[in-house]
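Folded chain entry
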Amino acid sequence: MSSAEQTPRPTRLAAAAAVAGVEALGLVAGGVYMAVNALTGTAGDLTGAVMGAVTLVALGLIPLVAARGLWLRRSWSRGPAVITQILALPVAWQMLQANSVMIPAGIVLGVLAVTGLVLLVNPATTEALGIRRPGQEA
């Protein structure tokens, strides 16, 4: 067991893992919702609905794997987690532009994405993941 695994997990790292996990659950839940709509016949375009559902579930695997990696302190997991947060920002923006029930979801997604980014670039998080900053000694 390495010394990083013996020290307590920083709260910021646990919170970053939780943010990625919540985003993963949201994507998978959206995919399942679309699949149910497609299979019950309420979707207009069956092929499009099924492809959308499969895409959302597949995209949900990225933050899910990143969340697990963050929780286990794997340095590689920060990259997919950061990319997920960056991609979530324009999606949140588009949701905020709608005149519908998507506005509250866009607010939640935007808050999650910004929070996730702040947590992932925090020095405590990078140190816990074993990522050295430029100019830092080995």
Remarks:
- The chain has one domain: 10-128.
